[in-house]
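Q: My labmate handed me this sequence with no annotations at all. I'd like to see what the chain might look like in three dimensions before we decide whether it's worth expressing. Could you predict it?
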Amino acid sequence: MPVVRDLSVLLRFRNFRRLLGIRLLSQAADGVYQVALAAYVVFSPEKQASAAAIASAMAALLLPYSLVGPFAGALLDRWRRRQVFLYGNLSRALLACVTAALMLGHAPGRLFFASALCVTAVNRFVLAGLSAALPRVVDGERLVMANSLTPTAGTLAATAGGLLAFAVRLVVADSDAAVALLGATLYLGAALTSLSLAPELLGPDRRTASPRLGAALAGTFRDMVAGVRHLLTPPRREAARALAAMTLMRFCYGALLVLLLMLCRSTLSSGSDQGLALLGLALGMSGAGFFAAAVLTPWAVGRLGPGGWIALCAASAAVLEPALGLPFATVPLLAAAFVLGLTTQGAKISTDTIVQNTVEDGFRGRVFSVYDVLFNVAFVGAAAVAALMLPPDGRSVVLVVTVACVYSAVALTMYRFRRR
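A: Here is what I predict for the chain of 420 residues:
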């Protein structure tokens, strides 16, 4: 297989193997920690989680990516990247232990979410540093290959970590703190692995003068504003429309995920373990939808164009989401999870394609920074809206119908512009 062959070539580079080890351990720990957070907030019997608590957990997981992410590069250009991996993972190991202690002590929610927020904020620097360090451990000929394979490997590691955490949580009773400690162990392993690399190996190059920090942060903000202005020019309107459509579809996906969490917590299960198993199954169905989108989207875009495929994805979700969701039953909701995974990821792949093809190369990085912020803020905003609308049992016809209306508006708008 080409992927296996490419990976075998990259693994011949000793320092690449070490950097990949840091990534795999770090992202596996992320998957474990996220499951620990979700299990404690949503499925601990003593918590009786509300939609507001779920929204707070989502904010703790995603807001650092939106608020810190665009500015991470300005700081990473000043810090030795090896040290970012060492101290970043050590601090996350310590914070994960603090999270476990807060779980055992039933601490106030604000302390728990503050700890989780710090873990995910540090995570943004580690992931950005891993990408920035790649050119230091492979040659230019194989850099594209490395950029393609390592994020996929990291995603698989995070998935494996999440599955391991689900297994621990289901086998060991009342084990949320144990899962958090497992995450801390993996973070510690990533920190120790970073010690196998020389401190100066991964850069940044000290011979290159960096602007003052304040100027760099202000410049990052100005770059994002310039990216927005670039999107609003007539030749790039197609990209702007696709980004708007993707933001709304991500909003819908986030709102329905909170609804699913509440249903798994109470209506569809008789206990926390059963509810957690059901959630894992639903997320697995959504992941299968993501995979199906990766297979179907190239074929569909070739026949409909990326804008037409976004319109069809939104229209399919508008029809199938209420049909499968309104019964509030297990089997239809699992089918809905697959449909939403397929349509959301299909629209995202199409949006990525439109942005890559229509945005000028000099603005592409800035536009994708804006895209990243919109993608995560929409998800957090959806959780906040769902928190206001959902009853304790998660059964909300109003939310399901509202989401269907948003999908319909996206489909009609994208179809109208495609006809033009």
